[in-house]
Amino acid sequence: MKYTDLIRPQIGTLPVYQPGKPIELLAREKGLQLESIIKLASNENPLGSPPGVVEAVRRAAANMAPYPDNNGYALVRALAGRYGFDPAQLTLGAGSNEIFYRLCDLFAAPGVEVVVGEYAFISYRISAMLAGATVVPAPMPDLKHDLNALLEAITPATRLVFLPNPNNPTGTGLPPSEVEQFARALPEWVVFCYDEAYAEYEEEVLDVQALIRDGIKIIGTRTFSKVYGLAGLRIGYGYSHPDLAELLNRVRPPFNTSSLAQVAAMAALADEDWVRHSRTVNAAGRQQLLEGMERIGVSCRGTHGNFVLFSLEQADSIWKSLQQMGIIVRPLASYGLPDHLRVTIGSEPQNARFLDALAQLT
Predict the structure, then answer these.
(1) Which of 149, 248, 317, 362 is the most exposed place for a label (fewest CB within 10 A)?
(2) Which domain holds residue 341?
(3) Residues 159, 139: Cα–Cα separation, whole Å
(4) Are 265 and 323 part of one and the same domain?
(5) Which residues contact 149 (CB under 8 A, 6 or more apart)?
(6) Residues 29 and 150 in one domain
């Protein structure tokens, strides 16, 4: 008897998350020098992490024998002080991604439906399917979330709806006022997970706290992986009504965020200048990519987040050719978008090198 004969039935149908290829792996595969490769596949901050993070982690690394603070007391209070949260509202996760799984631990099960946009972040599907729930995809015309379609997909069996704003991987965004109307239109048996992974890059954000105060069953999720440059440490959080936070913390694994991640997140949170600088570099880089791709006749979009989606014929072969040239971007066939690629906004030299390579291949 094989292991596959013993697993839960839903495991066999799970889609496999396809991360951006690590630089080290590409170097081994193609015989390239590490320093010759640029990775523009995972929406990481090309500037890295704030300067104070490295020193904070170095100090904390001198004492790694004890378990971390299970409840992240210092980080929770730093977040509460920064954003006006009640500490009882917060749930720490190994990236905001873990919060999606914990929500599905609570609310997803066989017979339950989870509503997502058809081109939304694939982790929503994986976490819901792992829990045995039925995923109900709502159409996304023009690669943008249709809030009416999401509402129409909701039935008495729906318990969760996921909405990222802006959306990864399409780079499309919705006005906060429209999202607020959507949240207020949800039935009382639906929990709304509002994914704000790229919120720090946005000019205007939804006031999730106001919706929580008004009794809407909503949770906002944020991460330190993007603008704060801490993807390698896996740290994020959700904020919600204390009743939901208490349930999430009940199913959260013990010590799910490391001491180093908690210390790094506090140091990053304190550096507001870093966020402003990162936003400026990102805006300039976006303009550079959009103008460059327009010059070479590549159709692209992406006015939100820190990445650009573009479409072209033979996307798969171009993705492979870019790798041969030491440039890693993200293929999107796993999202049902085989003619699209996604490129992270890099530094000015990285963007220029990508555009030069793309021009040679198209």
Answers:
(1) 317
(2) 3-48+273-361
(3) 19
(4) no
(5) 138, 139, 140
(6) no
